[in-house]
Structures are given as structure tokens and as C-alpha cells.
């Protein structure tokens, strides 16, 4: 057992405070950001977890998805049922993932070492990080489009800067993108505690803004809305569509259920996670669904058109001041979503890859720079990139989730030797074969292949909505078949090598 008395001081990373590095842990696996968090002083309570979902559920991408259901044949109550079912599934999955972080206090790349090994964990961490970096850039670009609307509303002369193209983006587009990019880089540079505070601030702002927008549209539509369109589905087709869209709703969060422990590692208790998830997922998703139904139904009643995003409505606000306020709220929202869903994961993935070179702040800079130089607007405008690269990586997240959950909950019964997650000793619990668990790899390769086939081959289009579920289920089943059940699992707290919670 490692004790604080065994600690020795090693040189800290630049811009990091001095913290004793315990003896017995490897500097290639441990630094202050990867270390488990002490239980005393954790700061993520129910409200903070709720605020995560208050922001993420109400993202522009989610609104575009849910409003699209109205256009594709689901009426108001069917949309609410689809989102409600998806919310219940997510509530269960996120509790399973969140409890792992609360117990161990470690981020996702370290959590992956339990099932994949101290070196094999790089695979799930980098896959999750690659998806997140690309979407960080894309979401920043989508926010910059809203920002451009606001700039032109306040300074009409700026419209002339929006007519040229430099590497695929206008001068005004570059200005808007870089301003938002810098804002996010500044927030991240202050660490997870600042992100927590920003999420807590942004949550009420977006809920109030979207509710006010829905009320305004309801009044514009004369106090009633269209609940359906002429293309609305009925009977068996309707129920298949509802269940399929509930599955897609869960798949949208397939990335987040994987690395939710990045946030719950600083949760005060399991009860805080359950309460935050309950009000933030099923309850908040029903509120989100009601807003979607009002926005889409009101617009359809007004002129027979189905909007694609709340940004379409914001652009029609006749009062410049109110338009600017609405745009600001959407920008606050998008930054909040980007920070939690697309910035934290690659930061931990890069820190895990180079723990002696990178810490949270420096990995944040690297992630942000990569998100800029890939010119994300060009990725967004390329269906092949979105579908095959990001979609392919996203499909693999299902099997990864299944393997990690099956190993933790069914094989180990939540017994984890946390200090051994940071040692390269050959007799360490997670050394396996040269740091890689071949059984996890054996389970991942075929199940990832199946998930990719389901996601991309047209012959399987009828079940593609469930590709994440099928991939996760197959990953869990195959891993249970090949897992080593003869090993003895010990449960050792990480408090001896833990650091004060600053995350």
C-alpha cells in the first residue's frame, strides 16, 4: 500500500503547483490532472450536474435533430414520447458511468485502464478525444454563424466583410470564429473548476431564453400551434419511428455516457449524481421537447414551414436589442456545450498520452489549436467526413462502452485497485500483457466491425438507429465470453495517492 509518507517531490509541469508525486507510481501514468481526486473537498453537487444537462440538452444541434422529427412525420405528443424514452435510457446509462467516477475519482482515460490495460487504454481515450476535437471545431464554427448574425445586426456595414473567402471562410467569419475560439481557450485555461462555474451560470440563461422564445412564438401564432403536419405518421410506422428516434437520441449522447466520469470524479455522492441526472435528463428533456413542439408547431401554423434551428427564429426577431440578447444567449449556450462535451475529453486524452509533458491547461491549448487548424467549417461542409470519419469513430464508442461497463460492473463487481492504475510494475493488476488486455481487444475488433456495418451499409438501414445499442450489447456479451474469470479482484481506495479536487 502506498502511503503519503512514501511521497517524493518531482519537478512539476510548467504552470502547475508543486504537488508530491507518490512513490510507486509511474510518471508515465500519473500527474496532478490524472490522479484520483480526494473525497474531501469535492464540489460537483446535484445542481452542477443538472446544469451540465441544462446546457447540453438545449444545444443547437439537439434542437435541429428534434425539430427535424416534426418535419419527418412525428407530431407533438410523439416527439415528447420519443424524447422521454430516450431520456429514461440515458438516465440509467449515465448513472452507471457516473458512479464509476464518483467511486474512483479518476478521469476516463485512467478508467479505461481497468479493462484495456495501462497502455491499451490509449485506444478508447484517443478515439473519444479525436471525435471531440473535430466537434469542438465544428460547434465553434456553428456558433460563429450566430455571432455573425449578431454582428451584422449591430453593425450593418460589417456585411461587406462576409462576401469573400479565405480558406473557406469570409473575413467576418474568421473574426467571429477566432473571437469565440479565444473565449473558450481562456475559460479552459483556468481549469475544470472554472468550467463548472460557467456551466452553472449558463444553464439558467439558456432555459429562460428558450422558454421566452417559445412563449413569443406561441403568441405570434395566435395562442395555438400545429400539432402535426400532413406527412405525420400513424400506426405501426409511427411507433417504429418513435422507438427508432429514441435510439438515435441515446446515440447522440454515446460520446458523453463514455466519459461522464470526467465530471463525476468530483461529485460529492451517488445521490448527487442521481438527482442531477434525474432533473437534468428525463425531466429537462421533456421541457426541451415541449419547447421544440411549440417552436416548430407555431412556425408551421404561421407560414406552413418547418424551421431547422432556433437560430432561424432568432434571425427574424424584429427588435435589434432583443435579437442581440437572443444571439448572446445562443452563444453562451454553444460555448457551454462545447466546453463540456468537446473540450474536456481530448484534454484528458492528450494528458494521458503525454503526462510528463502536458497538464490540463497545456493540453487544452493543444486541443484548441488542433480544432482550429483542421478548418472545421470545411469538415462540416463535407458529408463524407461527417458520415464516414466522425460517424465511424462514433459507432465504435458503443462497443467500447459495453466492454468497459461489463468489465467494471459484471466481472469485477466494482472492485478496483486504484493505485495499481498508475504503476508499470509487471505484477500490477492492470499490466496484463505488456500493458494491454488482449481479451478487451479481442472483444472490441469484431464488435466494432459489426457496429460500422450497421451504421454504414444500406442493407441494415432499418436497424441503423439502434447501432449504438447493438454495438454496446455485443461488446458486453463478447467480452463476458472471453474475460478471465479466474483472476482475483481487490478493491483498494486511491486516497493515498489522491490530490485535492480542483476539477
UniProtKB/TrEMBL annotation:
Key word Transmembrane present: yes
Main subcellular location of this protein, as a coarse class: membrane
Family, as annotated: Belongs to the purine-cytosine permease (2.A.39) family.
GO molecular function, one term: nucleobase transmembrane transporter activity
Topological type in the membrane: Multi-pass membrane protein
Keywords: Membrane, Transmembrane, Transmembrane helix
CDD domains, A to Z: SLC-NCS1sbd_u1
Comp. bias (Pro residues): 11-20
Protein name: NCS1 family nucleobase:cation symporter-1
PANTHER family (UniProt xref): NCS1 FAMILY NUCLEOBASE:CATION SYMPORTER-1, NCS1 FAMILY PURINE/PYRIMIDINE TRANSPORTER
